[in-house]
Specification:
Elements: E1 5-6, H1 8-12, H2 22-38, H3 43-46, H4 49-62, E2 67-71, H5 72-79, H6 83-96, E3 99-104, E4 111-116, H7 122-128, H8 155-159, H9 179-194, H10 200-209, H11 214-225, H12 230-233, H13 236-242, H14 249-267, H15 275-285
Parallel strand pairs: 1-3
Antiparallel strand pairs: 2-4, 3-4
Helix pairs in contact: 2-4, 4-5, 4-6, 5-6, 9-13, 10-11, 11-13, 11-14, 14-15
Amino acid sequence: MTLLTAYNQDVQRYFQGSYCNKIRKETILSTIEEKVFEMGKSFSHLFPNKRKQVLDEIIYLLSGMGICKIGAEKLAEKVGCSTRTVKSAVASIKETDQLIVGRLADGKAGKYIFVYKEHPNFNQILKEVFFLDSLPETPPIAPPSAPLVAPLQNAESVETVSLEGQKTSSNHINSFNSLQEKDIIQAVIEKDVQDSSQNRDEMRKKLQTYDANEYQLMLFDRIMTFPFPESIKTVAGTIALRVGMDCDAKKVIQALKLLNKMAINMINGVEIRNIVAVFSEGMMNQRYVMVPKPIVQPPTVPKAPFYNWLEDRG
């Protein structure tokens, strides 16, 4: 996107009567985190440690009028980090596509202008600060030539999987013609992978041993990175196998959305005894029904028998 610039006086107009709000800040952060998740990216990877603190500070300043201006040096001072970390955080912010990152056209060089796209003032800010009716169109991004994750360590495994994730006869599971044999072998493989559940690196190596394609490994890595319940992470290897050798980027996002819904249910007190089975069924049916948190009714108080005290008078 074209770098947007604005003059200090136009930006300053929005700070009159502006007030920041910590609760609103948390709401904006949650929305951004959800959007990043829907993009199939790891929020924790984009904003680790100090970068997250930089984002917190920016979002807090935005929580008032939806726009703020601040320099890299000032952000670094507030957070207690280097300007290099601030620039890395800004690069990650651009990657979320939830904020406009512009620059002041006058005044001190190096000052950023941040605008939250979902804020009610957004269209007004575009017109009165940047003098635009809409954002400039972003040119289409060419498909990346490099894989989304690091290539498999096993060179032989790479050769057995095409770029489209097509199955080949060299795959351990697919080399058996009998469906019964496939089921037996798959169960053995899943058990072998699952036996390494206490060691993430070992589990990943087992997936590579059984020719998991790059997107299956990506799904495994995302499960381990996202704040899923530990019971989901312990079966991450089996889940990565269950998505199948035809797994692609679209299927990874679908699987992560399904797991997120399952995790919400679990946090709300819904017991899922067999996570892998529920996941497999959800992927097969292309849906997963959210179970509402059970409402606990207050105990009923027995009514006291009616006593007509008027009859006893006399």
